[in-house]
Amino acid sequence: MAVVATLATGLISMGSLATAQEPAPPAAEALVAGTPCTATAMACVDLVGLRAWLLQGGRVVRGPVPISIGGDGDASTPPGRFRVEWKNKDHVSGESGAPMPYAVFFAPGGIAFHEGNLQTTSAGCVRLAHDEAVAFFDYLRVGDEVQVHSDVAASP
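Above: the chain sequence. Below: its structure as tokens.
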């Protein structure tokens, strides 16, 4: 696998990484308390409750934090199990030209965690407030598992 890192731009990329959704977790996998995710996840997203967490070893290390997500149709945020593909601190959308600071890309179609407005929907990305976006960018590494759930909201 080729790994490319450019510190000046904050770009981190990993080649040859599968981007397909992974199968749903087996029923026997225990959920991390207060989240809809299993202990294998490093980042967890609840599309119903509009919250996200950072996890380590089956425990919450940050969150829940508020998020905004994609709208309906092609702009919806996809549920599934994914892996962090690459990161770019100063990313600008190739589609809209909009800034996507602290972008952590994890799903096909350019879906990422990044700093953004929590009051509007995105084009599929998971938007976070500034401090949260920085924390997700600093914490997550290429290859880390991200679980995105749309079936149930986690209990508080």
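The longest strand covers residues 99-107.
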